Amino acid sequence: MRTHRIAVIPGDGIGPEVVREGVKVLEAAAVRAGMFRLEFDWLPWNCSYYRRHGRMMPADGIEQLRTYDGIYLGAVGDPSVPDHVSVWQLILPIRKAFQQYVNLRPAKLLAGLESPLRHKEARDLDFVIVRENTEGEYSDIGGRLHPGTPVEMAVQTSVFTRYGIERVARYALSLARRRRGHVAVATKSNGLAHTMPYWDEVIRSCRVEFPDVDVSFYHVDALSTLFVLRPETLDVVLATNLFGDILSDLGAAVVGGLGVAPAGNINPEKRFPSMFEPVHGSAPDIAGKGIANPIAAIWSGAMMLEHLGHPEPAAEVVRAIEQVLAEGRVWTRDLGGTASTEEVGDAVVRALEHPR
Ligand code: NAI
Ligand code: MG
Predict the structure, then answer these.
(1) How far is ligand 2, taken at its centre, from the CA of residue 245, in Å?
(2) Strands 153-156 vs 142-145: parallel, antiparallel or unpaired
(3) Rounded to whole angstroms, how far apart are CA atoms 261 and 250?
C-alpha cells in the first residue's frame, strides 16, 4: 500500500487548532479508503520558533520539506512578530522554492450554507480562483532609501515574466476546459500601463491553444462587482498574485466566510511538494478559545488528497463536510452556531463513517 509522507506545519494562533481536526479527518478518510496510508510529521515552525531562533524555519527547512509528498499548513502570524517576517520567511519561500505557481481557491457554496448575497443559491456560486503565486506584485525587489529622514522613500517592483504568465494561464485554461469552459481574467491595463498589457498579451497568446475555452478580460475593480452582483457568470477566475489575494477573500466572503475557504499552493507538474492551507490567517482574536471553524482546513486537506491522486476519498470528505453543514447542528460561531472546533472535526469524521 502506498504511503504519502505529509509535513504538517500547524503554525500560530488557530493554525494548530484547525490542523488537528484536519489531520483527524484525513486519517479517517485514508482508513476508509484503504488504498493508501498517510504519515504525518509535525514541524514546529512558527512565530515562537522565530522568537527562539531568529528565523521562522531552520536554515535547511526547504531541503527538509523537499522530501515530502505534501505540506499541510495551518496559518502563521503573531502580533509579536511583524507580518511581513512570518510570511516572507515561511510561506513565500515555500511557494517559490517548490514552484507552487498556482494558488487554487475554490469559491463554492456548500450544501447547507447560505450566501450573504440575497437570492444567490448553490448553483449561482461555484467558481474557482487561480492566483499566480510566485511572481507579480509580491516580488522581493525593492527597498527603502533615506530611512528615518524627511525624504524617506520606498519602492517595490512588480515582476511579470512570459514563463510565469504562460504556465499559470495554461493551468487556468485547461481547468476551465474541465469545468464550464470560461476564464475571466483580472487585469488593470488601464492603470498599470506596462505590466498589465503584457499580462493580457501573453494570456491572449496562450489562448489559441484552447479554442474551446471562452476568455474575457475585466479590470479588477469591475470584476470585483461581478463577484457580488453576478457570480453565476464566473467559472475560472485568473488573477495576478495581489489581485488574486484580494479577490479570493471576497470569493470566500460570498460563499460563507473565511472559516470555510480552502486553498492549495500547487506545483502542477508534481516535481515538488504542493502545500494546502486554509485561506484564513492565524486569527489571534479567537485563538486559544477552541471556537475556530476547522472546515476551511479540512477542505484544504481534501484538496491535498485529490492532488495526491485520490479524488474519491477527497470528494467523500467534502460530502461529509456538507452533511454536517446541512444538518445545521454542529456549527461554529462564525456560522451562527455554538460548536467547538473539535466538535466540528468529530462530526465530520462521523459523517464520513455514516453517509446519509
Ligand atoms: P485572519 O484570517 O486571521 O482573520 C480575519 C477574521 O476572520 C478574524 O476576525 C478572525 O477571527 C476570522 N477568522 C479567520 N479564520 C477563522 C476561522 N477558521 N473560524 C472563525 N473565524 C475565523 O486575518 P488577519 O486578522 O488579517 O490576520 C491575522 C494574522 O494571520 C496576521 O498575522 C496575518 O499576517 C496572518 N495571516 C496568515 C496567513 C497565512 O498563514 N497564510 C493568511 C492571512 C493572514
Ligand atoms: Mg490573503
Answers:
(1) 5
(2) antiparallel
(3) 10
How many degrees, rounded to 5, is the angle at CA 276 between CA 297 and CA 303?
A: 80
In the chain, residues under CATH classification 3.40.718.10 are 1-100+269-356, 115-255
Cell readout for 80 is: 509579536
Output the nine-digit C-alpha cell for 193. 500601463
Q: Evaluate: CB of 291 within 6 angstroms of ligand 1.
A: no
Residues in the chain: 356
Are 277 and 236 a contacting pair, CB within 8 Å?
A: no
Amino acid letter, residue 101: Y
Mean pLDDT of the chain: 96
Q: What is the pTM of this model?
A: 0.94
Which ligand 1 atom is nearest residue 277's CA? Answer: 41
Query: What's domain 115-255's superfamily in CATH?
Result: Isopropylmalate Dehydrogenase (3.40.718.10)
**pLDDT digit string (tens) for 203-234?**
999 999 999 999 999 999 999 999 999 999 99
Task: Give the number of other CB atoms < 10 A from CB of residue 26.
Answer: 24
Q: What is the dihedral of CA 321, 323, 328, 329, to 10 degrees?
A: -90
Mutate to test the pocket of ligand 1, among 280, 340, 348 (most ligand atoms within 8 A of CB): 280
User: Which residue do the cell numbers 470528505 mark?
Assistant: 317
* CATH, domain range 1-100+269-356: 3.40.718.10
Residue 312, classed as helix, strand or coil, is: helix
Ligand 1 atom nearest to 15, measured from its CA: 40
